[in-house]
Amino acid sequence: MNQLDLNHFKILFEALKGQLLTKVSSVAENGLGNLSSGDIVDQINNERDAKLSLKLQGRDQLFLKKIDHALEKIEDGTFGECEDCGTDIGTKRLMARPIATHCINCKEEMERAEGHLLYSKKSKTNGKEILSNGSISFATHDSGDNDNRVVNITSFGRDFEEKSMTS
């Protein structure tokens, strides 16, 4: 990567870092506000807003770390190199995603590998677990039986409709 491009990215990252630090400091000064004012609906809304604010602060902190990492790579002379294979990431990719640390080929390979993982999402109610294959696992705590029952949503719906039609 030529010096002109490196200077462009360094200025970009320093500007982004300045904006994020200003944003983080203003949020820290203002705090989360008074969560206990108003009626119960106001308190719930205030709590929701505070949770969202904390989530966004966490994202800003993560982005700030990525910016610092990119600035370190510029200083080390390794900015624009893929962290896996060492090839040039490419200026077009860096313009689209300046904090990219992998070339497009390595990133696509990583995403393909992630696609083969079975993700599960825990429900927040009744101990249910929703699996990516359309099944729901119910935790049972009956008389020493610690196994889970797995129900396929599609077949459960079909069985339910058939039973209701015959009744």
Tell me which CATH architecture of the largest domain applies here: Up-down Bundle
Strand content: 5-15%
What is the residue-averaged pLDDT? 76
Structural class: alpha+beta
CATH class of the largest domain: Mainly Alpha
CATH names the topology of the largest domain as Four Helix Bundle (Hemerythrin (Met), subunit A)
Order of helices and strands, N to C?
Answer: HHHHEEEEH
What does this protein structure show overall?
By secondary structure, this protein is of the alpha+beta class. It has 2 domains: 3-104, Four Helix Bundle (Hemerythrin (Met), subunit A), CATH 1.20.120.910; 120-166, no CATH class. It is built from 5 helices and 4 strands, in the order ααααββββα. The protein has a 4-stranded antiparallel beta sheet. A hairpin with an 8-residue loop joins strand 3 and strand 4. The longest helix has 37 residues, at 40-76. It is elongated, with a radius of gyration of 25 Å. The termini are far apart. Residues 140-148 have low confidence and may be disordered.
